[in-house]
Design brief:
This protein has about 500 residues and is α/β, with parallel strands linked by helices. The chain contains 22 helices and ten strands. It has helices spanning about 1-30, 50-55, 60-70, 75-90, 110-115, 125-150, 160-165, 170-180, 185-200, 205-210, 230-250, 270-275, 315, 350-355, 375-385, 390-405, 405-420, 425-440, 440-445, 465-475, 480-490, 495-510, and strands at about 95-100, 105, 155-160, 200-205, 255-260, 290-295, 305-310, 330-335, 335-340, 360-365. It is globular. The termini are far apart.
Amino acid sequence: MRHKEHWCYTALFALLGLLLFLPLAQEHLGLFTTKPLNGVMVSTQRPKITYESYVSGKMQSQAESYISEHFGFREPMIRLYNQYVWDFFRKTYVKSMVVGKDKWLYGKEFTDDYIGTRMYEYVDSPERLREHCLVEAQRIRKVQEIMAEYDKHLFVIMEPGKTRTYPEHLPRTVVEHAESNKENICAADLYPSLFDSLGVNCLNFDQWFMTIKDTVGFLLYPQTGTHWSNLAALYATDSIIHYMEHLGHRNINDLEISDIRFDTTMKPDIDLEQLLNVSRTVRDCPNQYAHFTITNDSAAVKPVWIHIGDSYYWNISYHIPLDELFERHPYWYYNSTIYYDGHHSTAEVNLVQELIATDYVTLGYCTSQLYALSSYFASQALVHLCYEQDEVNRVVQGIMDNMDQSEEWRASLQQKAEAQGKTLEAVMQADARYMLYLNPEKYFPGLQEEHPAARNRMLLQCQSDSPLGRQLRQMLGNPEWMEGLKKKADERHLDLETVILQDAEWMLQQH
């Protein structure tokens, strides 16, 4: 009997020792492969042991944070705890997520927009929001008008919001909050009437989704995802193509969409569910997809499409072979990072040349992102379509001179430069351009006109009967010539556009 008790105690002690030391062994040896957690992780660096950090207590604090992020089996333990919190309390520690009824998940920025408080991240009052939206809509209309002169077409894609399409699954607290804040407004309710009155080209998927949600027979939003469903994005793309054909009077290959089906092999739309980091599947509504084919119409053309906007576009580009529909389809993510093109940033491209080379530009923003509609593209395009680079440079230099003359302003920029690891001049120039695009009408009064008359001469490339346009096309189409012009621009410390125009004018004078 004693022998059995001894064996039992030994086994329990060994098990206890294993439980105590196995996480340590996992941390240092990595004995088992664990599934990483989803979401953005900011890793804490291993603390450095110094006398100063020890005395101040900083080292202990850093060590505690480091150990909590690197102990063995951290990932499965967190998933187990998150599963417990979800199962018993229907709660999550993800601050960017709101848990609705029937296990529906919503992004917090969308619920903030639904209750009317998101606007305060951009403006300080409903009146200021109305002014902001009016100015942005006017700028977009002006850019649209200028581009149309050269058979280039701009339109807005008002992407839907999950809270507006499916409010019936919102938690009661959000609905009550929205009802008590009826004086607040949202950009999605302001822009449609502004676009209609100004004549801005727009596809309002937000309104369309609210209208059809009970009749389409499939979910327009996944139960545990942020963006429109893959199936909804497919039908939206079909509408975008038809709208392009209407605006540009072009024939583009169509999407032939089959009946709805269920597919367990395709990646589901569950980005919010993945952020829960739980052990089991949360959703109980199946993900729906559809087979589709692309027509091969011999009379169809493949235009160039630049899309500027938010992450809703991923559900289009991931699942639809856009190369079969468009010659090029660069995606300017929030008018910053460029995908599906040779460039990596919008700062690397000449905006006017990009617009000349395209057929369609779309501005696609969902309801919670409309407050920053176009991400300053409308301001930048308006400035550069109307004024040449040397004129823009003079304005930027004038703003920088004002910065330099103010000791307080200069000192603030110097601190900013040191914090960012950049030169003072680079920070000054970036801030000057930001100020210009924030309020371009202040620096170029001609832009205040309803129909700005000024035009950048680079646009003459689009006119077959323009002598300067023919000369520009000849230069821009010759790689060796362009290489020489780039070298000349570097030697003279001028921008390339200015050198191109100077040489084109000189060449015309020789004839």
